[in-house]
Specification:
By secondary structure, the chain is an all-beta fold. The chain has two helices and 67 strands. The protein has a 17-stranded mixed sheet that branches. A ten-stranded mixed sheet has the order 4-7-10-12-14-17-20-23-26-27. The chain has an eight-stranded antiparallel sheet with strand order 49-46-51-44-52-59-54-57, with no helix packed on it.
Length: 936
Amino acid sequence: MGRRPALVALAVVLIGCPAAGVARADTVTGTTFYVNDEAAGCSDTGPGTAAEPFCQIQPAADAAAPGDTVRIAGSAKSYAPVTIRSTGTADAPVTFTAATTGVTVAGPRPATAITFSGARYVDMAGVRAEAAGASAVVVEDSRHIAYRAASVQGNIGDGATALIAIDGSSSDISLTRLKVYRGSGPTAVSSAAGARNITLAGDTFDSGGVSAVGTTGIDFAGDTFRTVCGAISLTGGTSGSVENTVALPYGTTACSTTTADLTVDAASAPQVTADYNAFNPPSNGTDYDWAGTAYATTEAFRAGTGQGAHDLDQTDLPIPASGLPAEHSPLIDSADSGAPGELSTDVNGRPRIDDPLVTNSGTGTDDRGAAEFQDPFTVSGLRVGHGYIGVPTSAVAQLSNPWSDSLDGLTYTFDFADGTTVTSTTGSATHTYTQTTSGSGIEASVVVNRADGTRVGSADYWEQVSPLPDLTQTFGCWNVPSLPDTANCSYDTGFDPYPVSSDRITFGDGSAAVSVTASSDQVQHTYRAPGTYTVTRTVTDAGGRTVTVTHPAVVGAAFVGRGPVRLLDTRSGTGAPKRAVGAGGVVRLKVLGVGGVPSSGVTAVTLNVTDTGATASSYVSVYPDGTARPSASNLNFSAGQVNPNLVTVRVGTDGYVDLYNAHGKVNLVADLAGYYTTKPSGYDPYVTGLAPVTPTRVLDTRNGTGAPKGAVGPGSTTTFTLPKYARGEATVGAVLDVTVTGGTSSGYITVSCVGPARPTTSTLNYRAGQTASNLAVPCVGAGKLHIYNSAGHVQLIADLQGLYTNYQADGPDDPLAPAGRQFVATAPTRFLDTRTGLGASAKPLGANGTLTVKLTKVPAGATAVLVNLTGVAPTAATHLTAYGDGALPNVSNDNLTAGQSRPVLAVVPVGADGSIRIHNALGSVDVVADLEGYYG
């Protein structure tokens, strides 16, 4: 060769970990030659300096002397094949190193990429070798050669040629941390007879295995084989050791013959030791072939040879297809750290470390195989709150830390993708966006580093930034019959990117405000008195925004049906002295503690009041004892008539109600239909609320609606069924307007949920030929009702006005039943009188005319009102129909003969405009209406 180039640089001789067979002396330095075929001024005849590098490796190899280093730059192209004849010394080896990744040596088929020929003390690291049709790496007549930290790949085709071939005149050869890929064929590495001191450590082999014939001192340590036809074959008197090696099948390809993962012939067996290995052979292979005997398990191998005391096989674990151990694998921390040739780093240059989650079962902390299971501490994700303009949002790095590493010293660099970067030591950061995003958003990210600057990991998150939404909330209050004095209010704050700083609810009764913390929930409040209250919720967020909403809460009394039970009959002395009530006379009737009515907690009772034997035209007013008598009447009658009317009246504080007769003498009868209570009752199914329904005709024997067509006979019971929504367990009672017409004689009817037993009370009394009506509140059983007729033949009509339903209504037990509302009794108040112009024009209501009457005495949100409706002196037989809004229903409330004045109790739905409507069918009639209470 020509003169050596001048010394142009000094460098540390050796890079990376020491390799077997190459001595190290940190004090020896030499020339550094540079190779870079992409450099503009590269020349193979130049000095090989950094400024004027060689284009190829060969001139650098030819120029290198003991202690010199050849630095090879990465290239998009492959470097030409090279033959290394360099001769170093134990203290001054010749070093070839890849300056960057991407250094590949390859030639045209069938050229060998790298040949060590007659070389001494050479260390090559990071240089990839590729070949086709020939060995990729050949070592011939060479000593103290280290080839490491590289990949070797080739597709030879011929099964006899190895990808890496070592001849019999070579010795002290170290092949470490190599990734060897043989496209086909059984042999990846061959060592010929006569070779000495060969080390294969920390290598991975795909497809091909290693064959050594007559080799003295070949050591395998921490290798991983994925092979088709066996991993290691030692024959011809080979000596050495096989430790910490992992072997498993290469995919599903089967070998044409039965082979073993480890084959040692009889000539070699006395000179080879095997331990701490793990074998999973192919389905048609076996674990060992030792001295001519096959062993299918490690247990059999130990028993037959005394070797493999710590080996594992397919009965101990399935090795993953990648050959890499997973957490808790038996491969982890189970190797012999002192095995001949064992490296302190794995195939990827990572340290052999202790896994704290696995008990050490080897001689140290090394894992079996080429890859060491590393600390899984990493960045598993990044969570960023949705961005809103002007609102701080938080980003949090999510860590996966199974080994519970200390987090001290970690730094987190957050990039919010809008030009803002924040570094944190706490794993979180806050940022306020000022612009919205579009499409998929912007990619925020975090990078986590240790205190020494090494990287733990990174994660990203596609962030959307939206305009700030308005602060909104929903709020509503309701109650259930079982807790009639209690309002349940549910609330939900609409999405607010700001935290809520204040959330207060006031209940409108002077009680202290309640502060709530959940964004959605419900609260309960018990009121001391029935009525309608305004509940207010005010929410303020950290952005200074406030929103207030209100909702009415109606608390009152629940209805409990009782009876019919006769509480008063002046003809017999029941409930009062046995005598007719004279003009201006008052009957004090005790109702609390009588007839099934509790002695406390009752606000009102419902009575069916009947006059009989009147000596003069008169009226009766029913009102609470101890209060002033109202001007409104509940019952109007003429001498000699029998007239009933349903009455709901508040109970005096002493438990009595009063019945006042205006003129003449009259006997009074009162039958209990039920009572209203404010006392909580748990889940008593008989405690109900009123659910107004669209007025519906459910029975008319004139046309066959609900029952056979035709007048019913004396002593008969007619059974009819309510609509489907009233047939479940939640429906306990009904509100019916019942009418009789065309009777052939005087009689009475009784509405009941029990039939056909003859009742002892009446709902409606009638005279021959009379059309009469009354409101009834009977109990309901499975949606069925019964009407008993006492005498003669008569037509029956029934109009459904409402239902009394319990706590099961509108729930999973009875989803069809409408939920009932509580009753708030009021002092009887006249709000309509066409005779005086109260509530409407001062003139009778004409034929087919309708009055719309605004309910000024009823709070907003009431669903229905209880009204005593009176028709006065019609010019023709007619009927009045009271309803809320919409189309005129085909029902009637008050049936009148010409000249008759008659009151009836009516439950009337409140229209959406806060009004009720009253329709007159024929002639003209004055209309009077008195408010008795309302339903929330």
